[in-house]
Amino acid sequence: MEDQVTEKYLKIAIALTSFYFIVEVIGGLFSGSLSLLGDAGHMLRDVFSLFITLGAIRIAKRLPSKTKTFGYHRVEILAAFINGLLLVGISGWIFWEAIKRFIEPVPVKSPLMFSVAFIGLIVNLYVALKLHGSDDLNIRAAFLHVLTDALASLAVIFASVWIFFTGKTIADPILGGVIAMFVLFSAFTVIRDSINILLEAAPKDIDFDSLVKDIEKIDGVEGIHDVHLWSLCSNLNAMDAHIFTSISDMEKIEYLKAKIKKKLETLNIKHSTLEFECEECLQKRKVEKMEH
Question: Considering the domain 208-291 in this protein, what is its CATH number?
Answer without folding.
Answer: 3.30.70.1350
